[in-house]
Here is the input.
Amino acid sequence: MAFRSAKASPFCLLHGHEVFVLLALVLLSPIGSLEGLEVGSVDDGGNELFREILKDEAVFRINELGKVSDRDGYLERTFLSRAAIRATHLIISWMRDAGLRTWVDQMGNIHGRAEGVNASAPALLIGSHMDTVVDAGMYDGSLGIICAISALKVLKTNGKLGKLYRPVEVIAFSDEEGVRFQTTFLGSAAIAGILPPSALQVSDKSGLTVQDVLKKNSIEGTVDSLAKVKYDPESVWGYTEVHIEQGPVLETLDYPLGVVKGIAGQTRLKVTVSGSQGHAGTVPMLLRQDPMAASAELIVTLESLCKHPDKFLAYDQQCGRFTKESFAGLVCTVGELSCWPSASNVIPGQVNFTVDIRAVDDAARGVIVSELSKQIYEKCDNRMVNCTIELKHNAEGRHCDSELTSQLKDAAHSALRKLQADDYYDAGDMPILMSGAGHDAMAMAQLTKASMLFVRCRGGISHSPEEFVLDDDVWAAGLALLHFLDQHVDQQQLVDSPVES
Here is the structure.
């Protein structure tokens, strides 16, 4: 079945399909597929579309990596855990199979590099993360790593790997999700040179620090060794990342691939509410200083603030230059809550919860954080409980490089044209998305120019075992990356040299 037209989609009224991935009220269309289409040939001499490598083997490897977990019954693989070490050996074996030189750096990132014609030229980096959330799907992060390895394996197969006119390096980042240490981008931030030395002293729930875990895995874990992970910006030409969309837009548009215009900034807070612990049956309601009830009010306030910022903010005064459009795509989440002593017959003495705030406009996000803080302190005072707010993470929004994005868009369009029998796709229709999810590209954009390619996922579901990407969409993503890499092959070398066996 070929991809169906997206002309009936409500997003088609937007110029160039420039849409934001966090739009929630959309009717999802049935998923298109490439099943049954005739496989064509590429322009450079009739080679097949490398189905065995870019689809069959890639999908098999995604499934294999999805079995490497620290838990029985569900997928969880966190920073330098036992499962992460097993995954490291697996990824290294696949990188070597693709003809790449491999190593693991001082933050546990896995590297696979092809030097090409000029080993001293600035390198193109391609990456994604190998860690997962708790009860994860198997495509988030893994898809980007495996598509990159597969595309380079194709270059090895057709004799182009040694003809790259710049080095190309695949990086499997050790930590992006931040599950273990509640600090995101440990891997990519270290490479970008933006990870502070203090990150080494952050502790997990068992009391182990990042430094402890590194040393446990025979990595120095010192400030000096962390500095060695950082790349010199002059040594890097650019960065690109393939990732599942984690939203419903591509499925709604019946498009398997889309390029990313930018990534929303994020703020993560930890809120601690302390009250008076007491007996659930003997303390009168009017005399309680209940941190759980206070937390419930604070969480509902957060929801109201992010749904209707105009009801809290005076745009012409408090927000200055902001308009209501500045808060488009604003999302706020409380994803974790705990209390002490957590007993059914005890009024809690303390409640902790996390707050995740995301928006493309960094200044607008800052205003929301400021207003939330104000509301928290006021409501805690009214309830006679104590509140503290701790900033756990703050990342600015990032715009993708226009030149790289254009190249990636052309490569994706070319790949989709190759994977269908008729002239269906118009390059101008390629969806251009904003990402509400954070990605390693956010950190890497502070090192070099960056771009991203999104791959549709069923129902827009991610961070769930229900996460799913069509096999043919994995193929399309791998072929798009192959076409992108083909732009970095020295064509004269191909003319002058015989094809490698």
Residues 1-46 have pLDDT under 50 and may be disordered.
